[in-house]
Amino acid sequence: MKKILFSIVSLIGTTQSIWANVFPNTLFSNNMVLQSEVTVPVWGRADASEEVTVELCGQKVTTIAKEGKWMMQLKPLKSGGPFVMTIKGKNTITLSNVMVGQVWVCSGQSNMERIVGDAINKPLIDNYREELNDATNYPQIRLYRMQNIASDTFVTEINSKWLVCDTNSIKRFSSVAYFFARALTKEIKEPIGLILSAVGGTPAENWTSRAALENNPELNVFVKRYEMSIESYPATLSKFLIQKDSLFAKWRLDSAFAAKNKKIIPIQPRQPISPQKSGRCGGLFNGMIYPMIPFAIKGVIWYQGEANRGEPKQYQTLFPTLINDWRTRWKMGDFPFLFVQLAPFVGCPPEIRESQLLTLNRVRNTGMAVTVDCGDSADIHPTHKRPVGERLALAARAIAYHQNIAYSGPIYKSMRVIGNKIEVTFDHIHSGLSINGDALNDFVIAGVDKKFVPAIAILKGDKVIVTSPEIEYPVAVRMGWRTVPHSNLYNKDGLPASPFRTDVE
């Protein structure tokens, strides 16, 4: 996991007397994108009782700062730009090259964080040089990256700024987010603002507020574990420091042996991290999500789940809780929440993809990009990022912008037993089902004993008929139910079907 900066006290919580002038929150800077067609909050710092005025696109709004803070709201804006925003108090701040368009939060763990440019110790994304060079053609895309901050308390401001998309700025930005924005702006013809808030190796409970975890009996276990880890940390650290020399000596010997015998080098011993610096139990929500609330947004794209693959059943509760938590705190209704179903990898059990599929079915205004054909069985960080972003953009066009397009591959709907066969129906077939290859594969079928055997699956119109000579009375079907799915069911729009099982537990 990347080293995460730690902040116990919000940056805005420092002594108010140092604010001699009016300052906007750092989310408001040159090159920013403001969300169109909604009320736009603008806020910042100033002296107590200082009068603050914001002007933009013919609007002029004034408020009085209270306790060193101010906030006001602009009426809905039309897409376009560039514009100039003026903020006046005792001083005047002018923000230039301001665009009005569509703002998306891009969050998750390492596969969302994965940059377009050269990443240390990771293979390059597909066609990265061409993608970098092409970025200069999209100055209407703007980039804002949250600092990696974990905190036990709410952080209200971070030190970052908006950048115009070009070959240099996109190098250190999320490839999935960039491909999403590039595909989207081509279709909706509006500026796109991307706010990246992602940290590798982080589970969803780190991104969910502590209050939401505490209020759910199933998820309160995270809070209890966290509190116990704080209590035990001093002893854990002391034990490591006592054993440090012997641990490193053993690691050097083991590493030399592994290198000589061409085996995997063991992981180097690491000093235990303070739980309060780890981002656990809402720490990343506090430091990397809360600071951007209530900045007006259109929606969220999310790529995460690898760090929760060990407890997929729990993720069925955790992931919807995260979505509802963010929506409640943003107070912008059930904004679109679009996410990536995990790509094939030997360490990802099928149950974690099922948890994501169940979230799609249970939480309204969500969309899921299926990536069964974008994975690398040996690498949890596949290099095929462009189709991931583009499929998220399809979901955005349909769900957020109400375009009548095919945006998802087939999703299991229902099954019916007909003699010794099972007939399977799907949603999102659009213009019809298709096979990427000569025949359907990766289907299995089971009888009453629930022992699954390889099945014969054939297309029959908009349905799949599944059977096996070994099963006389079938009761359940599964497709792609493995760590590395080999399924090849698509719709005719070229989008793959999600793995599924009819015997959902």
Explain the layout of strands and helices.
Layout: E1 5-6, E2 23-24, E3 33-35, E4 40-45, E5 51-56, E6 59-64, E7 69-74, E8 80-88, E9 92-108, H1 110-113, H2 128-134, E10 141-145, E11 149-150, E12 163-164, H3 175-188, E13 192-198, H4 210-214, H5 220-260, H6 283-289, E14 299-303, H7 312-330, E15 337-340, H8 350-362, E16 366-369, H9 386-399, E17 411-418, E18 421-427, E19 433-435, E20 443-446, E21 452-454, E22 456-460, E23 463-467, E24 476-479, E25 489-491, E26 500-501
Parallel strand pairs: 1-11, 3-9, 9-13, 9-14, 10-13, 14-15, 15-16
Antiparallel strand pairs: 2-4, 4-7, 5-6, 5-8, 8-9, 10-12, 17-18, 18-23, 19-25, 20-21, 20-24, 22-23, 24-26
Helix pairs in contact: 3-9, 7-8
Mind explaining what this structure looks like?
With 505 residues, this protein is an alpha/beta fold. It has 4 domains: 16-100, Immunoglobulins (Immunoglobulin-like); 103-217 and 277-399, 3-Layer(aba) Sandwich (Rossmann fold), CATH 3.40.50.1110; 235-275, no CATH class; 411-501, no CATH class. The chain is 25% helix and 26% strand. It has 9 helices and 26 strands. The chain has helices at 110-113, 128-134, 175-188, 210-214, 220-260, 283-289, 312-330, 350-362, 386-399, and strands at residues 5-6, 23-24, 33-35, 40-45, 51-56, 59-64, 69-74, 80-88, 92-108, 141-145, 149-150, 163-164, 192-198, 299-303, 337-340, 366-369, 411-418, 421-427, 433-435, 443-446, 452-454, 456-460, 463-467, 476-479, 489-491, 500-501. The strands form 6 sheets. Strands 3, 5, 6, 8, 9, 10, 12, 13, 14, 15 and 16 form an 11-stranded mixed beta sheet that branches. Strand 15 (337-340), helix 8 (350-362) and strand 16 form a beta-alpha-beta unit. It is globular, with a radius of gyration of 25 Å. The two termini are 32 Å apart. The model is unreliable at 1-19 (pLDDT under 50).
